[in-house]
Write a structure and sequence with these properties.
Layout: H1 6-73, H2 83-99, E1 102-108, E2 117-118, H3 127-136, E3 140-145, E4 149-158, E5 164-172, H4 174-184, E6 187-193, E7 199-203, H5 209-212, E8 220-224, E9 227-239, E10 242-251, H6 253-298, H7 300-303, H8 307-313, H9 324-356, H10 368-380, E11 388-396, H11 399-406, H12 408-425, E12 431-436, E13 439-446, H13 449-464, E14 467-469, E15 472-474, E16 478-485, H14 492-508, E17 514-516, H15 519-541, E18 544-553, E19 558-570, E20 574-576, H16 578-587, H17 591-611, E21 618-622, H18 625-628, H19 633-644, E22 651-656, H20 657-662, H21 664-677, E23 680-686, E24 703-706, H22 708-712, H23 718-733, E25 737-741, H24 746-754, E26 759-761, E27 769-770, H25 774-781
Parallel strand pairs: 16-17, 19-21, 21-22, 22-23, 23-24, 24-25, 25-26
Antiparallel strand pairs: 1-2, 1-5, 3-4, 4-5, 6-7, 6-10, 8-9, 9-10, 11-13, 11-16, 12-13, 14-15, 18-19, 18-26, 18-27, 19-20
Helix pairs in contact: 1-4, 1-6, 8-9, 11-12, 12-13, 17-19
C-alpha cells in the first residue's frame, strides 16, 4: 500500500475544506448580492408605478378642476341647453391648448352619439367613454394610443334643466415621460408592440431607442451595446392587437462593473487566506510528524523485547512546550517498563500453567490432556509380544445423588477422598487421572489379563469401604470398565471408548463390579445404533401400528374399555417386540413424536368407534415420562378433542410406577393439568416400582393396574396372592378402580372377582387386536348388552 505522510493528509484535507469554504462563502455573498439587487429592482418597479400613477392622477385632477371651473364661469348650470357653452369652448380652445396642453376636445349633448363640438374626429374606441360617463354620472379616465399616447378624461356637465352633457379632453403623455425621466434619473420610453417590430412612440433624449426595436418588452436586464440596462415595463393599454407600455430604463453599467470588481476581490482574499492557512498547517505538522515517525521506527524494538534500547531511542522531550508526541513518549516509556515486567511474569506463570494444563486442580491427579499425552507415548511403545496396555474407566455409583442432596462442595471433598484411595492401590508406574465429574481413568501395564483383573478387584474393594466426611458416612461403590491392547496402531480415543462401553455394562449389572470390553459388546452397541436409525426411519415412513387389548368388567364380563399397545412391523426385522425398541426410543429422544403419533391414532380410532355405535368405551393410552412433562401436551390434546369432536372422559392415560418416583413434584403438577382437562389417569405395572404406597394419596389417579407378574403367580405363590389381595383392598378403600393385567385362566378371573377386582385384561378374554380389524372383532365378540362372549 502506498505511503502517504501525515502532513500530506492534513494539507489535502485543508485544501478540500478551504476550497469548500471558498465556494460556500463566495456563493453566499453572490446570492446576497443578487437578492439585494432583486429587492432593489422590486422597489424600483413599485416606484415607477407610483410615479406614473401620481402624474396621471395629477393631470386628471387638473383637467377636471379646469373644466369644472370653466363651466361655473360660463354659468352652465343656469343655462338652458349647451349652445352657449359650446361656443365658449370653441372660442377658448386655443387657450386650452396653449396653457393646459390640451390635444383635443369633444362635447356631446345629452342622448346624442355625435359630438356637438369636436376639434378632431373621435376614435371609435372612445365612444364607450361617453356611455359610461352618462350611466355612472362621474368622470371616467383612460389611456389611448395611436401615433402617440394620450390620457383622456370624460366629465359629466349639467345645464339648468338638469340635462347632462359629456366633455372629453385629451392630453399627451409626453410630459409624463419627461417628468418621470427627470424625477427617477432614468430614460423613459413609450413603445407599441404586437407586430414584428417594436415601435417607439415617445422617449427621452438619451434613451437607446435603436436597441429597443427588436426587444421583447419584459421586465429584466438587456444589453445595449457596451451598456447594461434594467428595464421596468408598465402596461398602458391594448388596442387592435397592439400592446402599449411605458418603459423605464435604468443604466446598470457602473453597478455591474463595481459588482464584478467586488467578486474578484472576494475570490482573491479567499485564495490568499487559503494559501496562508495551507502553508501554516504544513509548517506546524512537519515537526510533529517527524517526531511521530521516530517513535514508529523504534516501536518494533518492543516486539523484540529490547526494552532498554527502545527507551534510549525515544524522542527527547521538548524544552519549552509539551505536546502530544511528548505525552506519547512518556506513555511509551511507561509501557516498556510494564511490558518488561509482564514478560518476566509471563515466563514465570507459563511454567505454572504448563503444570496446571496437565493436572486436575481439585484432586491433583492427571487430567485428560496428560491422559492423551501418556496414552500416545505408551501405545507407540507397544509390541505384539510385549505387555498389555490396560485402561480402567471408573464411575462412582450414586455420586450424583450426593451432589444434589449435599451440594457440590461436599461432593468435591468426596472426589478428593476418591483420588486418595486410587493412589493407595496403584503403583508408581501406573497413571491415574480424573476424566471429568465423578469419572476416573487408570492406565497400567500388565503381563496378562489376570493381572488386570486383580487390579480391578482391588479398585472395587477399596471403594467398598464407606467414606467418612464431617461426621457422615457415604457408601460410594465404583463401576469399572476395562479395555486392553498390544496394538501400537490403536488410537487413544478408541481405547478410552472401549473402556467406557465396558463401564456401562458394569453399571447395567448393578454396579460395584468390573467388566472387560469385548467385540460382542461393540457389536451390540452397533446393533443399538442401527436399531435407532431404523426407528427414526420407521417414524418417518409410518411403520408403527396400534393393537388394542379389551378391558373386561369381571362382574358381568362387559366390555368397558381398550388399551392401545404400540407395535412395529419392520420390513427388515419383522415384528419387533416393544421391550426391544421402547428403551431405544427413549434413549434416542423419539418417545415424544412417537407418543403424539399414538395419541393421534387413538383419537382417530375412538372417532371411528363412535360411528360404529361403540362410543361408550374408554381408551387407555400409555404416556412416557418425557411426554408427560412436555409443556405442549395439554394444548395438543385440546386441539385433538376439538378436531375429532370427542370428550376427555373417553380417554385414560397410563403412567408407570417407576416414572412417578423420579420427580414426584413435577409429575403431580403435570397429572393435575391433565386431570383438569377431564382425562382419567391410571398407574400401570403397580407393585413393581418403588414405595408407591407412601405417596399414592398424593396422586390424582382414578385406576390402579396390578402388574401381570403378580397375576401369573397368584395361585401358586402365596406372596403374590397376598400382594394382590392387599393391594385390591387398599386401593378400593381409597375409592379407586383396580385392573388386573395378564389374566389367562378362569381360576385367576374367579379369584380376582372374589376379592372385588373391578376389571381384567389378558389372553383369557382376547389377545391385542390390530386397529384395522377392531370394529369387526368387537362386533363378533360382544352381545347386545356389550358383554364379552
Amino acid at each position: 500500500m502506498r505511503f502517504l505522510s501525515f502532513p500530506s493528509k492534513i494539507l489535502a484535507l485543508t485544501l478540500v475544506l478551504m476550497l469548500v469554504l471558498l465556494i460556500v462563502t463566495t456563493s453566499i455573498s453572490v446570492q446576497r448580492l443578487n437578492d439585494s439587487f432583486a429587492t432593489q429592482q422590486q422597489l424600483k418597479q413599485q416606484q415607477v408605478e407610483q410615479h406614473f400613477s401620481q402624474y396621471q392622477q395629477l393631470l386628471h385632477s387638473q383637467l377636471q378642476a379646469w373644466f369644472d371651473s370653466f363651466a361655473e364661469l360660463m354659468q352652465l348650470p343656469a343655462q338652458q341647453g349647451f349652445s352657449q357653452f359650446t361656443e365658449a369652448l370653441q372660442q377658448r380652445y386655443d387657450s386650452f391648448s396653449l396653457y393646459l396642453n390640451i390635444e383635443a376636445l369633444w362635447f356631446f349633448a345629452p342622448e346624442q352619439t355625435e359630438p356637438l363640438f369636436a376639434t378632431s374626429a373621435l376614435p371609435a374606441e372612445l365612444a364607450e367613454m361617453v356611455i359610461q360617463t352618462r350611466q355612472q354620472q362621474r368622470p371616467v379616465t383612460r389611456n389611448y394610443c395611436a401615433e402617440h399616447c394620450s390620457t383622456l378624461v370624460s366629465l359629466p356637465l349639467s345645464d339648468g334643466d338638469g340635462q347632462v352633457g359629456v366633455l372629453i379632453a385629451s392630453q399627451t403623455l409626453a410630459d409624463i415621460v419627461v417628468a418621470m425621466g427627470q424625477a427617477l434619473r432614468s430614460e423613459v420610453v413609450i413603445v407599441a408592440t404586437g407586430g414584428q417590430q417594436t415601435r417607439i412612440l415617445s422617449a427621452t433624449s438619451a434613451a437607446p431607442t435603436a436597441a429597443l426595436t427588436n426587444l421583447d418588452v419584459t421586465t429584466g436586464l438587456f444589453q445595449a451595446g457596451p451598456d447594461s440596462y434594467y428595464l421596468y415595463a408598465l402596461p398602458l393599454t391594448e388596442q387592435q392587437g397592439q400592446h402599449y407600455a411605458l418603459l423605464l430604463l435604468e443604466d446598470l453599467s457602473a453597478y455591474q462593473r463595481a459588482n464584478q470588481q467586488f467578486r474578484w476581490q472576494l475570490i482573491g482574499m479567499a485564495s490568499l487566506c487559503f494559501l496562508l492557512f495551507a502553508w501554516l498547517t504544513y509548517w506546524l505538522t512537519r515537526r510533529l510528524t517527524g517526531r511521530l515517525l521516530k517513535v514508529s521506527r523504534v516501536l518494533p524494538l518492543l516486539a523484540e523485547h529490547q526494552f532498554k534500547a527502545f527507551r534510549a531511542a525515544l524522542p527527547v522531550k521538548s524544552p519549552l512546550l509539551v505536546d502530544e508526541v511528548d505525552r506519547l513518549s512518556e506513555v511509551s516509556q511507561t509501557l516498556s517498563f510494564q511490558l518488561e515486567q509482564l514478560q518476566h511474569d509471563v515466563l514465570t506463570q507459563t511454567r505454572e500453567l504448563e503444570n496446571m494444563a496437565m493436572f486436575d486442580l481439585l484432586t491433583g491427579l492427571a487430567n485428560r490432556n496428560m491422559l492423551q499425552f501418556q496414552l500416545k507415548k505408551r501405545l507407540a511403545a507397544l509390541t505384539p509380544a510385549g505387555h498389555f496396555l490396560g485402561l480402567f474407566f471408573l464411575d462412582l455409583d450414586q455420586f450424583k445423588r450426593v451432589n444434589d442432596i449435599r451440594g457440590h462442595e461436599q461432593g468435591d471433598q468426596l472426589l478428593i477422598e476418591a483420588a486418595q484411595r486410587l493412589r493407595t492401590v496403584l503403583q508408581k508406574t501406573d497413571l491415574a487421572c480424573r476424566f471429568g465429574g465423578d469419572e476416573f481413568v487408570v492406565v497400567t501395564e500388565a503381563a496378562d489379563l489376570q493381572q488386570l483383573e486383580q487390579l480391578a478387584a482391588r479398585l472395587v474393594a477399596v471403594f467398598r469401604q464407606p467414606m467418612h466426611l464431617q461426621g457422615e458416612e457415604y457408601q460410594l461403590n465404583v463401576s469399572v470398565g476395562i479395555s486392553c491392547s498390544r496394538d501400537a496402531s490403536l488410537k487413544p480415543d478408541d481405547l478410552v471408548r472401549q473402556a467406557d462401553l465396558a463401564m456401562y455394562q458394569a453399571k447395567a449389572r448393578g454396579g460395584c463390579c468390573w467388566h472387560f470390553y469385548s467385540q460382542q459388546m461393540f457389536d451390540a452397541f452397533q446393533d443399538r445404533l442401527a436399531l435407532e436409525q431404523d426407528l427414526k426411519l420407521a417414524l418417518s415412513l409410518q411403520q408403527f401400528d396400534l393393537h388394542l387389548q379389551p378391558k373386561i368388567r369381571l362382574t358381568d364380563r362387559k366390555l368397558v374399555g381398550l388399551e392401545a399397545l404400540l407395535r412395529w412391523q419392520s420390513p427388515s426385522r419383522g415384528l419387533v417386540p416393544p421391550d426391544e425398541f421402547i428403551s431405544v426410543l427413549e434413549y434416542a429422544q423419539l418417545m415424544i413424536p412417537v407418543g403424539y403419533w399414538v395419541i393421534e391414532q387413538g383419537f382417530s380410532l375412538m372417532a371411528g368407534l363412535r360411528q360404529a355405535g361403540l362410543g361408550d368405551l374408554q381408551l387407555a393410552i400409555n404416556l412416557s415420562p418425557a411426554q408427560l412433562t412436555d409443556p405442549g401436551l395439554p394444548v395438543v390434546l385440546e386441539q385433538l378433542l376439538q378436531k375429532y369432536q370427542l370428550n376427555a372422559a373417553d380417554f385414560e392415560f397410563e403412567l408407570t410406577e417407576s416414572m412417578l418416583a423420579k420427580n414426584l413434584t413435577e409429575t403431580i403438577n403435570s397429572m393435575q393439568r391433565l386431570k383438569a382437562q377431564g382425562f382419567a389417569l391410571a398407574i400401570d405395572d403397580f407393585g413393581t416400582g418403588y414405595s408407591s404406597l407412601s405417596y399414592l394419596r398424593q396422586l390424582p389417579v382414578d385406576t390402579i393396574k396390578i402388574d401381570k407378574s403378580f397375576v401369573f403367580g397368584m395361585l401358586d405363590n402365596q406372596a403374590d396372592y397376598d400382594i394382590i389381595t392387599s393391594t385390591i383392598a387398599m386401593v378400593r378403600k381409597l375409592g379407586l378402580q383396580v385392573v388386573a393385567e395378564g389374566v389367562e385362566t378362569q381360576a385367576q378371573a374367579k379369584s380376582l372377582l372374589q376379592h372385588q377386582c373391578d376389571q381384567g385384561q389378558g389372553y383369557l378374554f382376547a389377545r391385542p387386536i390390530p386397529a384395522a380389524n377392531l370394529v369387526q372383532t368387537l362386533t363378533e365378540n360382544i352381545n347386545q348388552l356389550q358383554q364379552w362372549r
